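Narrative of activities, Objective 1.

The group set out to show that a structural description can be obtained from nothing but a protein's sequence at a throughput compatible with the screening campaign. Below is one input-output pair from the validation batch, recorded exactly as produced.
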Amino acid sequence: MSEKIDKSIPRKMFDIETTEPPDVCPQCGAPLAQETGPYLVATRRGRRLTDEFVLSGSFGYLCPECPTAVIHLPELSDMLYGVPLKPGWEAGPEFAVIGLIDLDAVPPDKTDVPITNMIPQLLVPFEPDEGEIEAREPVDTGIERTLYFAGDDAPPENCMECGRPLVLDYGPYLVREVRQWQGDVDFVMAGPFAYLCPGCATAVIHLPALVDVMENTSEDFDGSVTLGVLGRFNLEAALPEQIPDSFEELPPELLVWYPNARRPYRRRKKRPRKPKPKRRKRRK
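Output recorded for this entry:
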């Protein structure tokens, strides 16, 4: 694409549903330039945000003359729903592009760091055109939160404290695995198991999703331990030089502790019941 297009500026986003790709800017009429991304795409079902995906493809266009982005919806839909998703991923029937990930902003010494670890620093958000639904409300990831645990199969939708719709958050989080007689083990986990409230200081952990993430990433996890979430690493406030190559190297000063955790989850293995011995009747 043209070098004079600045990918670091926020843009107003327009969705185009025509069969043919867009060719001119809907605001100024200048020819559009295709930008393959990557983009951050959120999917949802009704008012509930399901999963977020980092996608690159031929569905995005930028205007070189004004701050406008155009998304070709048929192309994005084919890419999002035309391939099978990994286990545990959920793509809702509605989707929206949150913004463009500016790869030009990656520091030279961080080129080996996974892009998903630097999304808070690299994401250039799009402003939806009037009439478009917003993918998510902004949430403050740097505050202490009261922690709840939800054990239903369906992910939580509304905040237990204020009733507002929750926002799916990938973290990363500090998860503690409590092992009897062996000592506790802490893990840094990122995945679709946490929900934050944009209206109050509440965090909700979806236990089935957390267990799925643990089973897929930890070889030693056997389901017979106590799980707890200690806090969230606030990568949004991190400087570029503070972003490590792996989650295990995250500096402790970025951790926001959740001191008011409620009802940690205990999952026990079912043990077969021993048959009760039959009592003999005493002879008179």
